[in-house]
Amino acid sequence: YEAKKSRNRVCMFQPELEGDYLYRMQIEHLLRGACRRGEICMNYQPQVDASGGLWGVEALVRWHSPELGFVPPDKFIPVAEQAGMINELGHFIIDESLRQIAEIQQQTGQSFSLSINVSVLQLAEAEFSRILLEKISQNGLGNVHIALEITENLLIEDIDRVCSILTVMNDAGVRISLDDFGTGYSSLSILRYLPLDEIKIDKSFVDHVIDDETAMRMVKNIIAIGRNYDVTILAEGVETRQQFDCLVESGCDFFQGYLFSRPLSAEHLLQYIRKTAERQ
Ligand code: C2E
Ligand code: MG
Ligand code: MG
Ligand code: MG
Q1: Distance between CA atoms of 252 and 222, rounded to whole angstroms?
Q2: H and E: helices and strands count for the chain
Q3: Per-residue pLDDT for 33 more than 70?
Q4: Ligand 1 atom nearest to CA at 238
Q5: Dihedrals φ, ψ of 178, to 5°?
Q6: In the predicted model, is pLDDT for residue 16 greater than 70?
Q7: Arithmetic mean of pLDDT, 185-207
Q8: pLDDT at 229 (0 to 100)
């Protein structure tokens, strides 16, 4: 602790804590209206199969604030959740990614999967599923080409309600993907409750598949679990050829990471798809 004299008052504070608090306050203040001011856009990171062919893309939100510069989603999504702004932001994310991906699929004649990260709080909104299904069909995309990425961390509370909403979506053909698998607090029993089509192995395991026997064994176990529950396995954060080869050999279905591509703007995704189509 450190005593600080500011104007007329003396207060005790922890510098990092105060800095953190002010930063969050600033984010909350500036995030309001950021969509309207055109500061938010979407990037898309390709997801490939074992032969490197495009399987899908994950939509990742980006905020370029004139005041704060680039703010990563890890920083502002939690603030949006706590400040009650996630529904508005979530709708922007859904609208923008459905629109841009539908356009790219029309322009290239290729259809592929679009994964959208959704906060469990978004699912709490009345009629979330009806609205989403309506938006998907308005954009002319098939339900089977949409996946919702849910983080297991957030699932602990309210598992029954979340589960029933996801089941409605899943029955309509939308795929459900469990993000960051292996990092949360939830037990394996979550796999029994949730309607799941895909598990994403977290980057923290992928990082060490080459040099750490334990990480490798865990990846193999996750893949075996996936097989048992009849879900596909996607490895995220693949950065090297060795990691990729090792994951292919272990039986992973899909892959995402800087080795294949960084997250791209819609315009760069279009170029990426045209280039990969030329090569095939
Ligand atoms: P996530 O859903 O697990 O997304 C994967 C993150 O890993 C992304 O970071 C991506 O850019 C990064 N990544 C992918 N491949 C590599 C790699 O090879 N190396 C490294 N070092 N990183 C890689 P990003 O875009 O900063 O997103 C962070 C998190 O923020 C996401 O984790 C997700 O939880 C959340 N997020 C991002 N966009 C959205 C969104 O539209 N809605 C919601 N609710 N959350 C989002
Ligand atoms: Mg994700
Ligand atoms: Mg993830
Ligand atoms: Mg992750």
Answers
A1: 10
A2: 11, 11
A3: yes
A4: 18
A5: -95, 110
A6: no
A7: 86
A8: 87
Nearest-angstrom CA–CA distance, 114 and 141? 10
Atom number of ligand 1 nearest to Cα 263: 11
- What is the total residue count of the chain? 280
Prediction pTM value = 0.93
Helix (H) or strand (E) holding 93: helix 86-108
**DSSP letter assigned to residue 248:** H
- Dist. CA 48–CA 261, nearest whole Å: 10
Residue nearest to atom 43 of ligand 1 (CA): 117
- Show Cβ contacts of residue 185 under 8 Å, excluding neighbours closer than 6 positions: 152, 153, 156
Question: Which ipTM score applies to this complex?
Answer: 0.98
Q: Whose CA is nearest to atom 11 of ligand 1?
A: 263
3-state secondary structure of 53: coil
Q: What is the mean pLDDT of the chain?
A: 90
Q: Which one, of 181, 195, 180, 191, lies nearest residue 129 by Cα?
A: 195
